[in-house]
Amino acid sequence: MFRPSAVISRQPGFTLIELLVAIVLMAIMSALSYGAYRNANVQSEALESTAARTRELQVAVAAMVMDLQQLVPRPARETIGDGYRPALRSGAAGQVLELTRGGYPNGAGLPRGTLQRVTYVLEGSTLIRQSSAVVDATGSTPLLRRDLLKRVKSISLRYLNASHVWQDVWPPVDAPPEQVAHIRPLAVEFTLDTEDFGAIVRVVEIPG
Predict the structure, then answer these.
(1) CB of 105 within 8 A of CB of 94?
(2) Which end of the chain is more exposed for a tag (fewer CB within 10 A), N or C?
(3) Exposed (0-12), middle (13-18) or buried (19+): which is 160, by Cβ within 10 Å?
């Protein structure tokens, strides 16, 4: 009896060319996805770095503003000798600014007052704030050092005197001797010239 030959069935699948095309397409899509992820990651890091830098700048400016607003007419005794340093003076011995400020909190009830001697120094490109817990410090008085702002090209200050004239030094060279140690300006303008943000200018009114 005649029987037709059995038909051999083929399972559905992919040819080698189709597999190669699929692999190439997957590689292209993976490369594109990685590139997009990398760009997004780079942008995120750049935004985070800019935000951190902005916060650093805001903290530095706020610290200087607060110190100047808390300025009190209290001179500081020299570390050696019987002389006094003015309540506010500029550009002495490599310093940017030195002042006596009030409002130093003492919640723990330590045996000290609420006045503080503060000094600003520019070391290289870093603006540094130094402070002591007492106004009349000695050679053994510890200093609290805080790096406020990096990448600073320069810092300059101007002082508005009682005649409403801006000048570059304080105390005024023509101030009466009996007033030199206590005299305060009407306002202080400081300019921070930074490498990335350029010049930042603030004018601080000094309370009378």
Answers:
(1) no
(2) N
(3) middle
Strands 126-132 and 152-160: unpaired
Structure tokens belonging to residue 96? 């940017």
pLDDT of residue 92 exceeding 80, the answer is no
Model confidence, pTM: 0.75
State the CB neighbour count (10 A cutoff) for residue 102: 13
Q: How many CA atoms lie within 13 A of 206 on its CB side?
A: 26
Cα→Cα distances 56→136, 192, 196, Å: 30, 13, 12
Return d(Cα 4, Cα 24) in angstroms, integer: 44
Q: How far apart are the first and last CA of the chain?
A: 125
Chain segment 16-63, per-residue pLDDT in tens:
787 777 788 888 887 788 777 777 777 767 778 889 999 999 999 999
Give me 127's structure tokens.
Answer: 């603006």
More confident residue, 6 or 146: 146
Helix, strand and coil percent figures for the chain, each rounded to 5: 25, 30, 45
Query: If phi over 0 gives left and psi between -120 and 50 gives alpha, with beta otherwise, what is residue 146?
Result: beta
* Domains observed in the chain: 65-205 (3.10.610.10)
